[in-house]
Amino acid sequence: MRPTVPDVRSYFTKAYSEKLPSRHEWTAGTASPELIKLVWDQTIKPHSKVIEVGCGIGTEAVFLAVRDMEVTAVDISESAIETARKLADVYGVNVDFHVADALNLPVGDGEFDVFCDQGCFHHLTDEERGQYVKEVLRVLKPGGLFVLRSFSDKIPGGPQPRRISSKELIDTFASHFYLEHLERVLSFSTEQRQFPLGWFSLWFKSE
After folding, report:
1. Domain Methyltransferase: where (predicted)?
2. Strand pairing partners for 103?
3. Is the pLDDT of residue 175 over 90?
4. In what order do the strands lie in the sheet with 49-53?
5. Percent above pLDDT 90 for the chain
6. What is the pLDDT of residue 197?
C-alpha cells in the first residue's frame, strides 16, 4: 500500500530498513541517463559542489563523486545512508552523507553549484513546497543549477508519489529560478507502473 502525504517519511524510513535495495521499485542500480548526460556535456562542470536530497542508497551521489564532484547527500533513512556509505567505500570516493530532511538541510548558505532532486519534491505537501523552495535558494550559489526529476501527471493515479503538472512546477519555482529545460522522460517499467513518464527539468537560480 502506498503512503499518504503525512506519513511518507516514516514509510521510506521503514522501507529502507526492511527490504534489500533491489526490492524497491525506485532503485535502478545506476545514475539516470539525464544526470549522466549533464555530467557528460559538462552542464554540471567538473569539480562542482553538488548536494543531492533524497539520495537513497547513494547511487547517483557516488556516480557524481566518481566523476570528480564534491558531493553532499541527504536522506531521511538511516538505513539508506548506511548502505550509501558502503557503496562509496566500494568505489573509494568521499561523499558527505547525512541523515536529514530536505526541508532542514545541515549545510551552510550559498555553498553549492548544483542542487539535485530525483524523487523528493513529489512527496511534499502544498505547505511544505514553500519551505523546500527556500532551502534550495538558501544553499545554492547565485546562478546555481537546480536539477529536478519527479513524477508527472502522465503517470496513473495513487496518493504517493504525487502526480505533478507542468503548471505546478512553474507556479512553484518560476518566481525564483529561470527555467532552462522541461520535458517528460521515460523511467524503468516496474510491476506497479508500465512505461512511467516523469519530469526532468533544469532551473537556474536568479542572480
Report:
1. 50-144
2. none
3. yes
4. 95-99, 70-75, 49-53, 112-118, 140-151, 197-205, 177-186
5. 71
6. 84
b/e per residue 85-120 (b: at least 16 CB within 10 A): eebbeeeebebebbebbbeebebeeebbbbbbbbbb
- How far is 191 from 94, CA to CA, in rounded Å? 35
The stretch 144-152 carries a mean pLDDT of 95
Cell of 177: 529560478
The pLDDT score that the predictor gives to residue 155 is: 76
User: What does the block give as the cell for 120?
Assistant: 523528493
What are the Cα distances from residue 111, in Å, to 40, 106, 204? Answer: 23, 11, 15
The pLDDT of residue 9: 67
Retrieve residue 174's grid coordinates: 518560476
Identify the helix (H) or strand (E) that includes residue 75: strand 70-75
Report the alpha-carbon distance of residue 16 to residue 9 in Å, rounded.
Answer: 11
Where do the domains of the chain lie? 5-11+46-205
The residue behind cell 502544498 is: 126
**What residues contact residue 163 under an 8 Å CB cut-off, 6+ apart?**
122, 151, 152, 153, 155, 157
Q: Are strands 197-205 and 140-151 parallel, antiparallel or unpaired?
A: antiparallel
Q: Which CATH architecture has domain 5-11+46-205?
A: 3-Layer(aba) Sandwich (3.40)
